[in-house]
Amino acid sequence: MKKITLPYHSVLSRPTFVYGVATSSFQIEGDIAGREPCIWDTFCEQPNTIKDNSNGDTACDHIHRWQDDVDLICELGVDAYRFSIAWGRVIKANGEINHTGLNFYIKLVEALTKRGVQSHVTLYHWDLPQYLEDKGGWLNRETAYRFADYAGVVADALGSKVSSIATLNEPFCSAYLGYEAGIHAPGPQPHAGSRRKQGRQAAHHLLLAHGLALQLLRQRLSGQNAPQLGVVLNFSPCHPLTDSTADREAAEFAHQYHNLWYLQPMLTGTYPHIHNQLASADRPSIEPGDMDIINQPLDFLGVNYYTRTVFKANEQHGFSDVPATGDGLTTMGWEVYAQGLTEILLTLDRQFDNLPPIYITENGVATDDVCDKNEVNDVMRVDYFQSHLLAVHDAIEQGVDIRGYFAWSLMDNFEWAEGYTQRFGIVYVDYATQRRTLKNSAKALQQLFLARQSQHHAVEDIC
Q: What does 36-48 look like in DSSP terms, one character per residue?
């Protein structure tokens, strides 16, 4: 079996560097009866939205199997577990707290803490309650204020028990894929302006929700046990198809549109300059004071990275992405491009003087996994982790402040519009039986994590 190795004396081998695995609520929890319906429940019911016509009603049945899953997490030897909370499992449609749902997360965090595993919580990973979507969803400014209320409930219940709280996971996907491209929930809305207008307005209200929630969290959570507060964004280096001026300009436009549209307002209180290049009908409505609310101090930035994206000029939209080709693509059709992780980290570090410490909060690959005699030989995934951990090492060596790395994902799960056709997990899930099987990638990471712990204990014994 292949191993994952790190350079001698790498920062990634230090005991202070946090290693973890990550999941999200809708993708693994199941137990639809225990929460309010969300936009993904509705989206799954629509024809031709999910590749295998599946849904998240059961998913990985984590709600009922969480104790076994905690055992699995601990068996891996990780320092931390990153997961999201289902808004609709905590807040009912009438605004009351669902104490049964909230207590599930309290029990989960307490069990992890008892086993020495940090909890890194994300408040929103795309599963907006349908009762809010019925009132306009992220196109409705009021949703941002309801999000802050929800954040306060979670802060009161879990704030002193967790290591970090991220407001949002990948608002790009919620806004662009959900409202603009229409390939994620809830899909483009009728009578709400152009798709670009919807995407930009949803993005603005998500950013506003982030700022409002951070303000409230900082008021509620202070002192020695206060968690780190931040956000999780996805990034992809934007490369031109050719060296032509038009393609290079398209790649730069895409970089600002996809990568900087979310981070720059948080760090500087301004949108990228392409905001002014958009047609006035496509720009978001911004009220006085909004940008100051969005521009809140961040304790950390979560960076999700999977691959790079290549762009070419498009007169109508400014850019078009070019699908990856060639050998060695993932089952998602993505190129494996580890050096892109180093590249985007260095780009952000050099562009923003106030860039906070970084955690790699998602990094992983979908492969065609087969479980044969209780073994899954996912060599491609082992190689992927090896190359991307070295990319993180290279970024640190060049001065980027990176504090941790979370593999995506702990287990195979519901992969949004792809349904259950894509397997990102380091643990194989047989959906018919819900049996979990460690893939060889999990064993390789386990060896890396446990070897680091043994090395640290040996040094302590010598000292």
A: --BHHHHHHHSTT
Answer yes or no: 170 catalytic.
yes
Q: Answer yes or no: is 169 a known binding residue.
A: yes
> pLDDT, tens digit, for every residue of 97-138?
999 999 999 999 999 999 999 999 999 999 999 999 999 999
Distance of CA 250 to the CA centre of its chain: 26
**Catalytic, out of 170, 375, 397, 418:** 170
Q: How far apart are CA 168 and CA 166, in angstroms?
A: 6
Active site residue 362: yes
Q: Which of 25, 109, 107, 101 is nearest to 60 (CA)?
A: 25
**Phi, psi dihedral angles at 233 (to 5 degrees):** -125, 150
The answer to whether 306 is annotated as binding is: yes
* Domain spans of the chain, in order of start: 11-462
CA distance 385 to 398: 20
Single pTM value for the model: 0.97
Q: Kindly tell me if the per-residue pLDDT of 438 is higher than 80.
A: yes
Q: Other CB atoms closer than 10 Å to residue 16's CB: what's the count?
A: 9
List the CATH code of the domain at 11-462.
3.20.20.80
What tokens were used for 32?
């639809």
pLDDT (tens digit, 9 = 90+) per residue, 357-370? 999 999 999 999 99
